[in-house]
Amino acid sequence: MDMMKDAMSSSEMPMQGMDPAMMQETLEALSACMQACAMCADADAAEGMGRCAGMCADCADVCNTMMRMMLRMHGWDMQVMSSMMQTTIMMARACSAECKTHAEMAEHCRMCAMACDQAVMAMERMMGSMSGAMPRA
Amino acid sequence: MDMMKDAMSSSEMPMQGMDPAMMQETLEALSACMQACAMCADADAAEGMGRCAGMCADCADVCNTMMRMMLRMHGWDMQVMSSMMQTTIMMARACSAECKTHAEMAEHCRMCAMACDQAVMAMERMMGSMSGAMPRA
Amino acid sequence: MDMMKDAMSSSEMPMQGMDPAMMQETLEALSACMQACAMCADADAAEGMGRCAGMCADCADVCNTMMRMMLRMHGWDMQVMSSMMQTTIMMARACSAECKTHAEMAEHCRMCAMACDQAVMAMERMMGSMSGAMPRA
Amino acid sequence: MDMMKDAMSSSEMPMQGMDPAMMQETLEALSACMQACAMCADADAAEGMGRCAGMCADCADVCNTMMRMMLRMHGWDMQVMSSMMQTTIMMARACSAECKTHAEMAEHCRMCAMACDQAVMAMERMMGSMSGAMPRA
C-alpha cells in the first residue's frame, strides 16, 4: 500500500520539499521498528533484561508517535517535526546499542537492533532531503 | 481539572444519558491504571516476570485507548464503546489477578492490582448507568 | 520483514494453534489500517467531518493496541485477546461504514474504508483458525 | 495516588538527582495535557479547524509517550530523556500558541492552551532541577 504517495500526490498542501517515496519508506521503517521493539521488550522481560525491555518499550512508543505525526500532515510544524525526528533517531540509536550488547545470545535483540538501524537510516535520509524545509533545532 | 464536566455541560451533543462526574471519575481511574501498569511492566521486566510484564503492558495500552475513546465524543458509537469497555474490564481483571499472585513480594504489583481494581469498579458503575444508552454486546 | 514467522518458529512457547503466516498478515493489515485511519482523521478534520475524524482516530488507537497485544506473546490471555479482537473487528467495521458514506467525494475515506475492510478480513480469518484455542466471549 | 513518590522512595535505583514530588507533578500535568488535547482535537475536527486538530492530536501522542518514558525507569537514558523532554516542551508550546488563536471562540481551545502551558511549566521546572543529571542536547 502506497498511501503516502497517493495522499501526497492528490493533496493540495504545500509538501515543503518532501519526497513521497522517501516518506513512505520512512513510515515503513518506523512501523517495522515499532513492531520489533514491542516484541523484543516482551521477550527481554521474560529473560530479566530490564534495561533492554525499558529501552525497547520506549523506542516502540517514540517510533509510533513519530509515525503518527508524519501521517497528520495538517498538524505539521517543521521545528517540532525536526526536533521529534532527532529525538527518534537518538532513541533508536540508543536502543540498537543496548540490543547489540546481547545480540549474540538473543535473536529478538539481533532483529530489533537491525530494525532500529534501518529506521535511523531512513530518518537520516529524510532529514537530509528536508534540510531546506526543516530547520535543525 | 474537571474537563469532562465542563466539556459536557457546555456541549450541545446529546450525552446519551451519561453522568459527567462519573465520566470524569472513570477517566481518572483509567489514567491511574495506565500509569501503574506502565511502571509495573517496567519493574517486572527487571525481575524476569515476563507474564506480568506482558499483561501490564497490554493493560496500559488498553486503558489508554479506552480513555482516548471516551474523550473523543464525536466518534462515539455506543456498540463499539460498550464492547471496548467490556474488553477493558476483562483486561484489567486479568492483569489484577496476575499481579495479585506476587503482590506480597512486589510493591509495584500490589499498587498495580489496586489501580486495576479501581478502574474495573469505575467502568462497571459507568456501564450500569449507561445500560439504557449502551447496548450490551 | 517476517518477524512474526521467525519469532514464532524460534520460540519455545506453546503457540496455541496459531499460524505464524496468518499472524504476520494480520499484523500488516492492522498496521496499514492504523496508518490509513490516522491520515483520514487528519484530512477529515480539515473538512469539518467530525464524526468520521473521531471514529478514524479511535480506530487507529484500537488497531494499534490490538497489534501490540499480538506482539507481546508472554502476556497472551486467550479470553482477553478474543474480546479485544472482536472489539477491533467491530470498530473497523463501524469506521469503514462511516468512511463509505463519503468515499465518493473523499479519496482518503475510500482508502481508509478499504484498509478497514482488509483488517476485518484478516482478523476474521485469524479468529476462525483460533477457534479451538480462543474461547468466543 | 502518589505512585511516583512511593516507587522512587522504595526503589534502589540511583534516581539521578530527581525529586519524586516534581516527577509526580510533571506526570499529572502531562496526563491532563494529553486529555485536554485529545478532547480539543475531537472538537476542532467537528468545526473544521484542521491545523488545530492535527497539532492537538500530535501533542496528545507526544505527551503520552513522554509520560510513559518517565514511568519506565529501567529504560532511562538521560540524553534521550532530555531530548524527548525538549521536544515535548516545543510541541506543547506550539499547540498552545495555535489554540490561543481561537481561545476566544472555542472553550476547548482555551482549556487546552492552559493545560499545555501547565505541562510546559512542569517540564521546565524538572529540566532545571535535573540540569546536573541530564545533559542539554
From TrEMBL, chains A, B, C, D:
<dbReference type="Pfam" id="PF03860">
    <property type="entry name" value="Csp"/>
</dbReference>
<dbReference type="InterPro" id="IPR005560">
    <property type="entry name" value="Csp_YhjQ"/>
</dbReference>
<protein>
    <submittedName>
        <fullName>Uncharacterized protein</fullName>
    </submittedName>
</protein>
